[in-house]
Amino acid sequence: SVYPEKIASLIENQLSKFSEKVASKAFEIVKAFIEGSGALKNPAKYLEIIVSSFVIWFIYLLGTLLPMYAMNFDTKYSLGFMEAMATMSISAFGQFVTPAGAGTYQYICQTILSDLFLVFLPEASAFALLTFTITLFTSGLFGLISIIWQSYFLAPYHKEHEVRKVKDTNEATINNPIL
Questions:
Q1: Are 131 and 88 in contact (CB under 8 A)?
Q2: CB distance 63 to 135 below 8 Å
Q3: Tell me, what DSSP letter sits at residue 112?
Q4: What is the spatial distance between Cα 179 and Cα 11, in angstroms, rounded to a whole number?
Q5: Of 60, 73, 62, 72, whose CA–CA distance to 101 is shortest?
């Protein structure tokens, strides 16, 4: 969109009727989302988007494939790459139903393994719980590291950027012959 700030402001105005804090945060999130999606207009970014998408999906796949090898599913049940991909892809729908996929992910994952690939139910349940726990803790850990890094290391940059933006705005106002 050409006007990310205007669209974000509309949302902020609507939400400010309920909470100024929520409205302010929503403004920043919507503006950043719209500006970020602007990368899709740039064909030079297509390769970067495609490669990063494949890398992300490959990392997710490793999160399913490695526990399969760790639990010897490759030798016991002849499960490999394709089965891990099917398990990962179908189980992902469980993430949408409840917050963090608690319960639904485990149910879908164990059902796929036990019904589709004939894995013994207690092992399928253990696998589902193991992969869910690993995912939850690694996401939480990296999220915490990211929050600390952004607030501690990037805070001076953001403050400097805001001061520079205000200074540039003031200079433009002063130097504008119409004003």
A1: no
A2: yes
A3: I
A4: 30
A5: 60
CB 110 within 8 A of CB 128: yes
Task: Look up residue 8 and give its amino acid.
Answer: A
Neighbour tally for 99: CB within 10 Å: 8
**Dist CA 11 CA 3 (whole Å):** 13
pLDDT in tens, 94-146: 878 877 677 898 999 999 999 999 999 999 999 999 999 998 888 889 889 98
Q: Is 91 exposed, middle or buried (0-12, 13-18, 19+ CB in 10 A)?
A: buried
The span from the CA of 74 to the CA of 82, in Å, is: 11
Distance CA 106, CA 121 (A): 12
**SS3 readout for 35-88:** HHHHHHHCHHHHHHHHHHHHHHHHHHHHHHHHHHHHCCHHHHCCCCHHHHHHHH
Question: Residue 72 and residue 62: Cα distance in Å, rounded?
Answer: 15
Region class of 42: left (phi > 0), else alpha (psi between -120 and 50), else beta: beta
